[in-house]
Fold this sequence. Notes:
The structure holds 2 protein chains of 2 kinds. By secondary structure, chain A is an alpha/beta fold.
Amino acid sequence: MEKTAVKVTDLVFERPRGAFRLAVSRFEVAAGEKVFLHGPSGGGKSTFLALIAGILKPRQGEIVVDQSHMTGLSGPARDRLRGEKIGLIFQQFNLVPYLGIIDNVILPCRFSPQRLAAAQQGEGSVRAAAERLVGRLGLEPALLSRPVTALSVGQQQRVAAARALMGRPPLLLADEPTSALDSELRLNFLSLLLRECSEAGAGLLFVSHDRSLAADFDRELALSDLVSESTSLAHAAQAGGQL
Amino acid sequence: MTKIACLFSLALKSAWNRRWTLTLVMLSISLSAILLVGLERLRGQVRAGFVQAISGTDLVVGARGSQIQLILYAVFHLGGATNNIGWDTAQEISALPEVAWTVPLSLGDSHRGYPVVATTAEFFDHFRYRRDQKVNLSTGRPFDDIFEVVLGSEVARKLGYHLSSSLVLRHGMAEAAPEHSDKPFTVVGIMEPTGSPVDRSLLISLRSMEAIHIDWRGGVPVPGFRVGPERVRHMKLEPREITALLVGLKNRSKVFSLQRSINVRPGEALTAAMPGVALDQLWRLVGGGEKILWAVSILVTVTGLMGLISAVLAGLGERRRELAVLRSVGARPLDILILLAFESLILTAVGTLIGLGVLAGLIAILGPLLKELYGLSIVLSAPTVRELALMGGIIASGVLAGLIPAFRAYRLSLGDGLTVSV
């Protein structure tokens, strides 16, 4: 049986008072697979990612991340599972402003002993692992001493990608991570991200409304193909927002 | 690094990142600490100064009356004695086998509002204040001859007297009372500041007291009868009566039995009071003002803590994304609550320590001045258990107050999850 980074089965999610409903009968990302998910703004993409990340809890269905059941877990247990198995990249404002670049990158290792152990196993020390990652993502060593708020948006996104990859989580969730970048930086960032995911063997679920980015992914999906039932999408936009 | 250590480190870095915004909050907490701890120290010292206005004296003996009144006039020279005690009676008490020493006090006269205390040279040997401290002369010598006076530090400073100054005593405490102008006194000594009523006293010998009243009867000069200062020197000047007698015992365990025996003694009706006990009772009567000061400083502390709450709450809006990032890497909402609580802990702890430092500086700078001007002995020393408890109380209150924004952040992070629009 092929190993999956994430597997979703018979998922149903409802906002209170029926403002929004999302139903996905079956979805999965294989280990190391890179999936491009597109759809219109407000279509429920962020809600779907929040469900996979264990932030939102579905009414029914099953979400399995790297063979661990997310559904049915308590809130703290979902938080722990997310810390261990999932790397997240937001559209922007990805970094903790008062931490340096390396401290931002090693943040997941502070909350997950597994990722800490994985990082240490690879490079000997967590700091060395972080420095290697930011180096591979094209950040010059001279930049490391600068505060993260002094970095360009493109540089910040690379730091965010390094953080998401830190400790080799089996699944990366990225929600519109390139939308704040210009076209050249966008392609550059994407190619670095895909390369590093391959290197780490991580599954990637990349969400964007820009289908021109889909070419280098293993698979491209529209949210409408995935969703068996979705209502009140306009409300969903208000309720879910962007990651 | 454990998760708790990581959260503490994050809280530290976060607070440092917002240091300019948080400085005012911290200063208001420092001010609270200065007020609360400073007031406690002042209260402790004032109380000690009051309760230990006299120390080492086991009993104060006076005419029959209330013990508190006896202490008020014998120690603080406030009010007046309803009656005096006979010199013979005082001599008899001095001769009791339990008694190690006695110091007679004769009161009633004044100089420009300051009380005159007539006593003997034993006063300088046996009178103690504040934990057995001896009274010392800053300049000059004790009185020896009649018409010699030793001044308390405040009397000398306020009235501008120095050695060899000449002054005249007034009969009684009233401003309009007649003066003993025919028998001026010469200043022969000035006491060091003590923070006790001695600072406000003029000390003369019992013989001097007799000498200035030799030609007085019933509070007025005897008409047509004058005894000049030179003539009075050659007269027998043994006091007939005194106001009170300070008594020191050979063995302090006998104090209760001696007090009882003096109080029920046949003959002249006497009251013997234990100064420590009576002063403690008196402090309970007069110490009510401290409660108002307490209330004010607690209000200042509450205001400081409200500032802390509002500053942290106001900052939460712009920190929601940062909290969401922490949630994305596995932080639980409880971790967010702990993070915010740590921030409050750091703010109040640093604020309190700064306050303590400033207070120590103020005591070092102003302490000698307060002693000089007001006789208040406030010394730089390690914090007392009560002061440490107060500081702990400020920090604990800060953490508790910080739980309000922390709980708000907890709720926000539960609701926001990873989806914050900023």
